[in-house]
Amino acid sequence: MPTNPAIAAGFFTAAAAAVFRMRTLDNSGVHLIHAPQTSQVEGEKTLLDIITAECPTLTESANAHFVPSALLPTGDLQTCYNSIKERFGRTRIVEYERELITTEDGGTIGLDWSPPFATMPLDDRPVVILSHGLSGGSHETYVQTTVKQLTSEPYNFRTVVVNYRGCAGVKLTTHVLYNGGFTSDFGFAVNHIQSRLPRSKLISIGYSLGANLITKYVGEQGDACPLKAAISVCNPYDLASSSDAIDKPTLRNKYIYVPAMLQGLMRLYRRHRKMMETGPVKLDSEAIEKITTIRQFDNLITARVFGYRDATDYYEQNSCVHFMPNIRIPFLAITSMDDPVCPEQYIPREIFRTNPYLVLALTRYGGHLGFHESPGNSWLPRPIAEFCSAIFSHTT
Asked: Given 272, 368, 372, 394, which residue is catalytic?
């Protein structure tokens, strides 16, 4: 047994890390939930056949597990790491080319293409469309790491991030921002991408609130969906339940999650307040400045701007769980059981067990948009890239 204090500390730290890794490895497997018979994908192979054969990160016993970094062992640490990292400066690991498009009502959406067209001229290669989370954008770490994976060897796909109204430096040109069910803007972006690259196959990925949005869109489209597949990451599924879970008066909600989320939302509101006040609905600026919960924000701003009775009405009409039974394209959802923002008890497991187009990949660890195997190294882009590659190779 080492006697030097520094050596002893190192020894016990290494031993603790080893024990932690052994314990987590035992519970780190990826659990797939799906219908007894999954749908066929433009041929004889079923969706599950394709995932089993071509997505080793999700199915192979040696690879299908996520073990969190010993430095980030809990869902809270996994979740907070991205924000902590960005506080010390945002790192750009991919290069974008921005295109601004204007919706029929005068709204502006920013499309960030990667690689830029000067590097990758227009062709018919597959395109992956990414939809960011709450008040986010193409700069987010979870977006950039996925873009880098998808645009690198052996995949070499084209990617485009949809930055919604007022987000990621996009100027707000109407009185409305965006919300978790504002699928008309996403559909407008998809149609524009399709018209610009008419021979390219399309898959979409949505994160958190963006996952709810693209899932709702895919369900709305049904058999007419122009996408070949969709991927949902850390989806809240039920907006009311997710909002209520975050607004519960726990210490971590009070001092970590609610302040962080409201800070992003209030920053958007304050930045675009003058434009939002040009709309037909008068906003109560005094009450808005006293907001302390997500539901209050949605009651005073989101619901009023978009014409809902209140936050409850907004949540009910836009929760993607109501649209999932109508999905008719291959759909992969990736969710962790220790997600503190979108609690696992609200995952609609029964819909995954009955709709043959859906597969849920459930991990024990990962937090919300975390999945850090080590600081700076995310597990998440690997299963996403494998699934995209598999679907693109089996569709026309």
From this structure: 368
